[in-house]
């Protein structure tokens, strides 16, 4: 099968998200003049080592946020955001935090998620998350499309839960990170294998 996106796919559901998988989930926390916010984004990844940088993208809008969503609006306002790593055990809380709420709703409270303060930025983070990346916004890029924005940030502080460190390495099998697939599907990482590069 081949299709051009502008012509449509003719399938019951859009296959694009199912093709680009698995995608890590950035559980983005922000603080703005309307309060604290927490929401998951599956268009998320690390993009550079030195200095460490990440990005997340928002692809829809709320009527009360001037053409975008709360996370982008508050990152734009404050200049900071935090990426919280989602473990399998937090899947229901993560999903609850994705509910559509009016601007100013604190998803931490709405979803029953404990929060603590970040160290290098004025922003909350998910208490007890396996890891969290404190970030200062470097740029917000408007992408083609009605409400598509990519938010880039430089990591200024990194939290790792002590039980996730084994033999001096951050061990993802200790908490099984959640990843997004297509449709309503998710997966978790619970096994690893290693490959050495040909020149090593």
TrEMBL record:
<dbReference type="Pfam" id="PF01613">
    <property type="entry name" value="Flavin_Reduct"/>
</dbReference>
<dbReference type="InterPro" id="IPR002563">
    <property type="entry name" value="Flavin_Rdtase-like_dom"/>
</dbReference>
<feature type="domain" description="Flavin reductase like">
    <location>
        <begin position="18"/>
        <end position="172"/>
    </location>
</feature>
<dbReference type="GO" id="GO:0010181">
    <property type="term" value="F:FMN binding"/>
</dbReference>
<dbReference type="GO" id="GO:0016646">
    <property type="term" value="F:oxidoreductase activity, acting on the CH-NH group of donors, NAD or NADP as acceptor"/>
</dbReference>
<dbReference type="InterPro" id="IPR012349">
    <property type="entry name" value="Split_barrel_FMN-bd"/>
</dbReference>
<protein>
    <submittedName>
        <fullName>NADH-FMN oxidoreductase RutF, flavin reductase (DIM6/NTAB) family</fullName>
    </submittedName>
</protein>
């Amino acid at each position: 099968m081949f299709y051009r996106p502008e012509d449509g796919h003719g399938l019951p559901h859009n296959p694009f998200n199912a093709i680009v998988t698995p995608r890590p989930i950035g559980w983005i926390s922000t603080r703005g003049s309307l309060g604290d916010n927490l929401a998951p984004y599956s268009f998320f990844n690390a993009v550079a080592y030195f200095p460490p940088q990440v990005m997340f993208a928002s692809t829809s809008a709320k009527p009360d946020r001037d053409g975008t969503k709360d996370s982008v609006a508050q990152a734009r306002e404050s200049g900071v955001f935090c990426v919280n790593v989602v473990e399998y055990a937090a899947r229901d809380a993560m999903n609850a935090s994705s509910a559509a709420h009016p601007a100013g709703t604190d998803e931490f409270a709405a979803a029953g998620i404990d929060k603590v303060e970040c160290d290098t930025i004025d922003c909350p983070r998910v208490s007890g998350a396996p890891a969290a990346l404190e970030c200062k916004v470097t740029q917000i890029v408007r992408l083609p499309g009605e409400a598509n924005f990519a938010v880039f940030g430089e990591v200024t502080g990194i939290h790792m839960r002590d039980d996730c460190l084994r033999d001096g390495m951050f061990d993802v099998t200790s908490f099984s990170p959640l990843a997004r697939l297509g449709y309503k599907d998710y997966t978790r990482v619970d096994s690893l294998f290693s490959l050495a590069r040909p020149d090593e």
